[in-house]
Amino acid sequence: IAKDFFSEGFNIEILNLSMNKIFLIEREAFKNLNILVKLDLSNNLLSHLHSNTFQSLSKLQILNISFNLVKYIYSNLLSNLHSLLYLDISYNQLVLIEDYSFGNLLYLEDLHIEFNMNLTKILTNKTFYGIRGIKKIFTSENLFRSDFQNLIKIKDVITPKLLENNMNTEYYYSINLVSLVHTNLHFKRID
């Protein structure tokens, strides 16, 4: 998607660009879509997202970049998405989600990170730092080992899938997950 593709400043609120074989989004390609609320980039060939790809989308509530080839979520990629409620980064080739990547997503409720088989470590205090309203986290079919360290006992968010993993309920979630009501840690190999 070229930088000037949306140069007319369209009044677009919902933009579905899924299944288009998009492999590159130039910096600031969405800069004139200031009222965009939903963006679907799923099922494309994206492998890299520039740090300012979503910079002007402060009203965005739903972002779907699932079924792509994205390897890294950098800490500043999502930093201006203050209104985001739903984020789907599942079915990518994620290797790393940098600490504080979700830091400014204060109202994020649903997070999908499942089926990223190259992702080896994600759940730490710093990963979810800043999230206040998270209600659902989907992490199935990832190989990362969890680093549960602080404050909120996992037994407060047990689901049947957690029990299938023979998980030790003395582990802890990050303090930032106080609103979590559903999680799936299926196939997590939690120690």
Q: What features would you describe in this structure?
A:
The protein has 191 residues and is mainly beta. The protein is 3% helix and 15% strand. Strands 1-2-3-5-7-8-11 form a seven-stranded parallel beta sheet, with no helix packed on it. It is globular. The protein starts with 13 loop residues before the first strand and ends in a 7-residue tail after the last strand.
Order of helices and strands: EEEEEEEEEHEE
The radius of gyration over CA amounts to 17 Å
Strand content: 15-25%
- Binned, the helix content reads under 10%
Structural class label: mainly beta
| Low-confidence regions | 147-177
Shape: globular
Helix segment tally: 1
Return the average pLDDT rounded to an integer. 77
Q: How many angstroms does the end-to-end distance come to?
A: 43 Å
Number of strands: 11
Short précis:
Helices cover 3% and strands 15% of the residues.
Name the descriptors:
191 residues; mainly beta; 11 strands; two-stranded parallel ribbon
Secondary structure elements and their pairing?
Elements: E1 14-16, E2 38-40, E3 62-64, E4 72-73, E5 86-88, E6 96-97, E7 110-112, E8 136-138, E9 152-153, H1 160-164, E10 172-173, E11 182-184
Parallel strand pairs: 1-2, 2-3, 3-5, 4-6, 5-7, 7-8, 8-11
Antiparallel strand pairs: 9-10
